[in-house]
Every structure is written in C-alpha cells, then in structure tokens.
C-alpha cells in the first residue's frame, strides 16, 4: 500500500524501492497502461513491471474481483472510435439514475458490446462525450475551445445527466451575444423593403426605428405593431392601412403623411406633429385611433372625416382647421384642445371632456349632448 502523490515518475520510484525492481511501467487491473497519475483512484490495485508485457491477473487462478473491488473496476470505452479509460464508480456514483449508470452498474446487465480490444462500444460523438466524462469525474463543467455547447447539452440529455443539463443551459445562455437593440437606419430599412416581394406581408412588429428618417417612403400595409418609432421623420410617408397599434410615435414628425385606414389603437403619439395629414379614405375605410395617446399633438389642417378617436387623449392638442365631420369623439379627452375652425358636423362628442377647449370659428354649428363634460 503506497501513497500516490507527485508525478508518475515519483510513483515508479516508490514502487522500485518497495519491490526491489527497476519499475518502468504502471498498469491497471485491465492491463491498461497508465500514463497520467490523475487516472489513479483510492484503493486501486496497480501492476508495475520492468518493461515486460502485462500478464492478466486472472490467469493465476484468482478471480478479478479479488484484485479490484467492483466499485473501482477500470473500464475502457470506445466512443465513436475514440478510447476513454475510466472506472465503473465514475460512471455510476455521481448520477445513479443516468443511462451510463444503468449500463455499467451491473456487469453485462445491458449486454454491452465490446470491440476486439475489450472496450465497450458507444455510438456517440467523442468530442461531446469527453466533457460529460470529466464532469462525472470531478463535478465541474469544463469544455475546450471549439466545442459546441449545444452538442454537449444534447449528449447530456441522451445519457440522462440531469445535474449537468442545468449547468449547460446556463452556460449556453451566458455565451449568447447580447441582443442588438440599436435602431434600424433608413438605409437598412430601404434595403429590407427592396428585398421583399410586393405581395408579401412585411412584419416589423416590435422593431426599433427610433430617430430614423423614413420620410417619403411607401410603407403601405406594413405591420408596425408595438414598434419603436419615437422621434422618427415620417413626413410625406405613405402609411395607408399600416398597423401602428401600440406603437411608440412620441415626438415623431408625420406632416402631410397619408394615413388612410391606418390602425393606431392605443398608440403613443404624444408631442408628435401630424399637420396636414390625410386620414380620409375615399373607399370609406376609417382610420382607427381609439385609445391613442395624442397629448399635445399638432394635427392642424388634417383631413379626418369619420376618424375613430373614441376614448383617445387629445389634451392640449392643436386640431385647428381640421375636418372632423362624422368623427367619433365619444369619451375623448379634449381638455384645452384647440378646435377652432374645425368641421365637426355629425361628430359624436358624447361623454367627451371639452373643458377649456376652443371652438371659435367652427365651420358648422356644434351640437353637443348634455353628457359632454366641460363647457
């Protein structure tokens, strides 16, 4: 019985002194040549020689189990053509419910196939198996450069190494590059538009266009739902039937834009400029801005016949000289809104808040129901 420490040369020196020979080689109980002292485990039975070939201890009449306990039996695995030497305890003890543990817990329980050298055959990728075997040895996830963590994760799932799966999922998440939230430029978007067939639906949901110059572009029917279009220049752009639902248009410039049939439900256009915009669709399709935040917007001179502004917020907005004929303004907040010169004929102002609103010089008389708040 010897203490194993230092290097393999130190072990050979100790063995030489103990046995009175000139030890040059160390073998495990299976005849595997040990070339790294780290492969040796407590209670292992080792064989040293002066260079002669290894002699199987089973030939002297003693059963192999007497020489090496079942918990430290050395095994050689042939994984995808590459050989790995390990112990039965390494494969069994750390993850007793894994496939590897079930394969090698009881000898020949699975009828494991062996090659001509006696190595157990496993048809898996050796480069992905190596990190798994090392994890079973010392409990640490160590993956060499160039090894795909997704491949190691797939092998861990295949072998049922549950504790390693969690480590790998965290490592993969941490290795992913940070998401690029930088705004899309005009050049990038125009290239995107040109590469998309005319009849294809263009979906830009949730994309970041903050501060981009998208003026005078044909943006018809594009889905901008929940996109960031804050401080964008959309002047003279064609946004006919575009979907801007819950989009952020705060501080944007949409002067003279074509907004026929646009969907802007619950969008945020606070402080935006929409002077001279056209919301009126000759075919009768009405623009829908229900629930939109239009605080402080400047919509002077815009054509908004039949527009739906139900429960929208237009506090302090400028709607001077707008055409709001037949518009739905029920429940709309028009506090301190400038509506002078507006055409409000047949507009529905039921339940709207018109406190402090300016109605002078309207093109048609305004008839408000008693439920209109303010004066």
TrEMBL record:
Residues 75-145 form the BTB domain. Residues 1-66 form the KHA domain. The keyword Phosphoprotein applies. The keyword Cell division does not apply. InterPro entries: 5peptide_repeat, BTB/POZ_dom, KHA_dom, Pentapeptide-BTB/POZ_domain, SKP1/BTB/POZ_sf, T1-type_BTB. Pfam families: BTB_2, KHA, Pentapeptide. Pathway: Protein modification; protein ubiquitination. Signal peptide: none annotated. Gene3D superfamilies: E3 ubiquitin-protein ligase SopA, Potassium Channel Kv1.1, Chain A. CDD domains: BTB_POZ_KCTD9, KHA. GO terms for biological process: protein homooligomerization. Keywords: Phosphoprotein, Repeat, Ubl conjugation pathway. It comes from the Eukaryota. Substrate-specific adapter of a BCR (BTB-CUL3-RBX1) E3 ubiquitin-protein ligase complex, which mediates the ubiquitination of target proteins, leading to their degradation by the proteasome. This is BTB/POZ domain-containing protein KCTD9.
């Amino acid at each position: 019985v010897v203490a194993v420490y230092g290097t393999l040369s130190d072990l050979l020196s100790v063995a030489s002194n103990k046995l009175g020979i000139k030890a040059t080689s160390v073998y495990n109980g299976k005849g595997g040549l040990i070339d790294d002292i780290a492969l040796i485990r407590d209670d292992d039975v080792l064989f040293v020689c002066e260079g002669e070939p290894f002699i199987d201890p089973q030939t002297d009449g003693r059963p192999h189990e007497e020489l090496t306990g079942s918990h430290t039996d050395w095994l050689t695995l042939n994984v995808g053509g590459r050989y790995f030497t390990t112990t039965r305890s390494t494969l069994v003890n750390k993850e007793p419910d894994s496939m590897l543990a079930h394969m090698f817990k009881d000898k020949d329980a699975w009828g494991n196939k062996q090659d001509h050298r006696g190595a157990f055959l496993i048809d898996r990728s050796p480069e992905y198996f190596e990190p798994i075997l090392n994890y079973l040895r010392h409990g640490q996830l160590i993956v060499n450069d160039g090894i795909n963590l997704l491949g190691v994760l797939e092998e861990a799932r295949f072998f049922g190494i549950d504790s390693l799966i969690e480590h790998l999922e965290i490592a993969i998440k941490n290795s992913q590059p940070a998401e690029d939230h930088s705004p899309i430029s005009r050049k990038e978007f125009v290239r995107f538009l040109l590469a998309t067939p005319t009849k294809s639906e263009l979906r830009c949901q949730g994309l970041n266009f903050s501060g981009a110059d998208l003026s005078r572009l044909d943006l018809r029917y594009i889905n901008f739902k929940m996109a960031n279009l804050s401080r964008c220049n959309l002047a003279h752009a064609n946004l006919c039937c575009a979907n801007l639902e819950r989009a952020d248009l705060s501080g944007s410039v949409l002067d003279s834009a074509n907004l026929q049939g646009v969907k802007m439900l619950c969008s945020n256009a606070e402080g935006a400029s929409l002077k001279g915009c056209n919301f009126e669709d000759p075919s009768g399709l009405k623009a829908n801005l229900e629930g939109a935040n239009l605080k402080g917007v400047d919509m002077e001179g815009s054509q908004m016949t039949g527009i739906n502004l139900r429960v929208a917020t237009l506090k302090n907005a400028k709607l001077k000289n707008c055409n709001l004929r037949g518009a739905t303004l029920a429940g709309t907040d028009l506090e301190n809104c400038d509506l002078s010169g507006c055409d409000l004929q047949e507009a529905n102002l039921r339940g709207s808040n018109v406190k402090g609103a300016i109605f002078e010089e309207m093109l048609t008389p305004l008839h408000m129901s008693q439920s209109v708040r303010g004066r």
